[in-house]
Automatic annotation (TrEMBL):
Residues forming coiled coils: 9-51
Keyword set, alphabetical order: Coiled coil
Source superkingdom: Eukaryota
Name by which UniProt lists this protein: 9099_t:CDS:1
Length: 51
C-alpha cells in the first residue's frame, strides 16, 4: 500500500512539474507580447507628439 501511495505521489509531482514548466513558458511568451505592445505604444506616442 505504501509503495502504491509513493508511486502516486511521484506521478502527481511529475504532472505538477510539467504544468509548472508549461505555465512558465506561457508566462514568458506573454511577457514578450506585452513588451512588443509596449514598444508599439511608445512609437505611436512619439508619432503623436510630433504632430
Amino acid at each position: 500500500m505504501t509503495k502504491l501511495y509513493g508511486g502516486m505521489l511521484q506521478e502527481t509531482r511529475q504532472i505538477l512539474n510539467k504544468h509548472k514548466e508549461e505555465l512558465l513558458t506561457i508566462s514568458d511568451k506573454h511577457k514578450e507580447e506585452l513588451l512588443k505592445q509596449k514598444e508599439e505604444l511608445l512609437i505611436m506616442n512619439e508619432k503623436h507628439n510630433e504632430v
